[in-house]
TrEMBL record:
Keywords: Transcription, Transcription regulation. It comes from Pseudoduganella flava. The keyword Transmembrane helix does not apply. PROSITE patterns: HTH_ARAC_FAMILY_2. It holds the Pfam family HTH_18. This is Helix-turn-helix domain-containing protein. GO terms for molecular function: DNA-binding transcription factor activity; sequence-specific DNA binding.
Length: 314
């Protein structure tokens, strides 16, 4: 099968699986389809560790001063939960942006990474890890994604075949061009792995008081070394990352659960609702009420969809 033929089949399947603009969930936990019928301006997003495969259209992400283009037959891997900015560059009603997002099961990834590292023959070592990277779909990964989309059109195949295909997709990523970054994120003894562990701690306890000294101590690093390593991975400071996580989480609570700004601010750890409103407007460029209203207009969140372990909104 040629790449063009594979893409055509993916697009036809995605048109069935993602009939509505926004996010559509499926029978596999955490797996969701993304559809945009028009270009979307650059906005702030926060993704969980995931694999995003674009079947049609063109997106661009920004992390610090770096830009990441991912378009048809490319995929993006976020090996750690990262706040960045994203925009949709090519999408029309006739040719919408179509993509599938697959969460990275960290326990399964760690098991596979250990097996991969034990059988190192022909596998690139986990050098120069990166938190985010875009790559072209190779035939093995592309075929696995196509089989996943086919399975997801049938409830029985989704339940019986889906988990195995997700495992294969994760294996293909771990052994491909981006595998080094993902395997390093899972290796807690590496600097990259220690920062990944700290990020997961922040996403678990964002509503509590967290200080950099404690995070550094848990990582077995000095505060100065921790701060430098943290910024190298996330392009931001630990305190700013925590604040960003809280603001994204509050936005999600207002959009999904209909909470007021005052209630959401308390849920995410703010003691002052006025301080929350100031920082929210400075970060998103709109008041909490304006942003929640705009997000409801942009997103077609599937009924019953809930946030995962990490904040994830676009």
């Amino acid at each position: 099968m040629t790449e063009t033929e594979r893409q055509g089949r993916m697009v036809r399947l995605m048109a069935v699986l993602a009939p509505n603009e926004g996010y559509t969930l499926c029978g596999l936990p955490g797996v969701k389809f993304m559809r945009a019928n028009a270009v979307r301006p650059r906005g702030k997003v926060l993704y969980e560790p995931c694999i995003v495969i674009v079947c049609q259209g063109h997106k661009r992400g920004y992390l610090g001063d770096q830009a990441f283009d991912y378009h048809s037959q490319q995929f993006l891997v976020l090996s750690v939960p990262l706040p960045f900015e994203g925009e949709t560059l090519r999408a029309t009603p006739a040719e919408p942006l179509l993509a599938i997002s697959i969460p990275i099961d960290l326990q399964l990834a760690a098991e596979l990474a250990l097996a991969v590292d034990e059988a190192q023959s022909g596998i690139a070592p986990p050098a120069a890890p990166r938190g985010i990277m875009a790559s072209k779909l190779d035939d093995a990964l592309g075929d696995a994604v196509l089989r996943l989309l086919q399975a997801l059109t049938c409830q029985v195949e989704t339940r019986l075949l889906g988990p195995g295909i997700l495992r294969e997709i994760l294996f293909r990523v771990l052994t491909g061009e981006q595998g080094g970054a993902l395997r390093a994120a899972l290796a807690h003894q590496s600097q990259f792995g220690k920062i990944g562990k700290a990020l997961r701690r922040i996403h678990m306890d964002y509503h509590r008081q967290i200080d950099v000294a404690t995070l550094a101590q848990e990582a077995g690093m000095s505060p100065a070394a921790f701060h430098a390593s943290f910024k190298a991975v996330t392009m931001t400071s630990p305190i700013q990352y925590l604040k960003t996580t809280r603001l994204h989480k509050a936005r999600l609570l207002m959009v999904q659960d209909g909470l007021t700004a005052a209630t959401a601010s308390g849920r995410v750890g703010y003691e002052s609702s006025s301080q929350f409103s100031r920082e929210f407007k400075r970060f998103f460029g709109r008041t909490p009420l304006e942003e929640a209203r705009e997000m409801r207009n942009l997103l077609a969140q599937a009924p019953g969809a809930r946030e995962g372990r990490y904040v994830s909104a676009q």
